[in-house]
């Protein structure tokens, strides 16, 4: 079994309920080991949309990375996600942040692990810091806590809050 760390987000319908449903559905892909607190975050990239509810989960899964990505995309569709545009509104978003300590660059299935924008996203690092504060990013060789502090210094203000 592999340890997959997944990021979850929603800003359509009832976002908290959407995350609850997604976490429940993830049990079909393995065992959900831990769930971070839900946070409220401002949208990034495209501002003219509602705030997001985000979280992070640790999933123990038998699926290989590309297969897990495929299953996550199928799950997003089953939960009501309709394709829009990059950084646009969504019922649910499921991303692989980490997969064991692997580094994956697979352009065939568009899978990049660790997630390439993870260190730039407060809405990922904040909940991640509750579950894996000392986990060392395999590429940056800095802990989640260090990455979060560096980002907060750059941003100069906190834009996410615990729900």
What layout of secondary structure does this protein have?
Layout lengths: L1 E9 L4 H12 L4 E5 L3 E3 L10 E10 L3 H14 L14 E7 L4 E3 L4 E3 L8 H10 L12 H12 L4 E3 L1
Antiparallel strand pairs: 1-4, 1-5, 2-4, 3-4, 3-8, 6-7
Into which percentage range does the β-strand content fall? 25-35%
Count of helix runs: 4
Number of strands: 8
Please identify the oligomeric state. Answer: single chain
Uncertain runs are none
What coarse outline follows from CA principal-axis ratios? globular
Supply Rg. Answer: 15 Å
Mean pLDDT: 95
Secondary-structure-based class equals alpha+beta
Taking the sheet with the most strands, its summary is: 6 strands, antiparallel
Proportion in helices: 25-40%
Q: What is the string of helix and strand elements?
A: EHEEEHEEEHHE
Distance between the amino and carboxyl termini: 31 Å
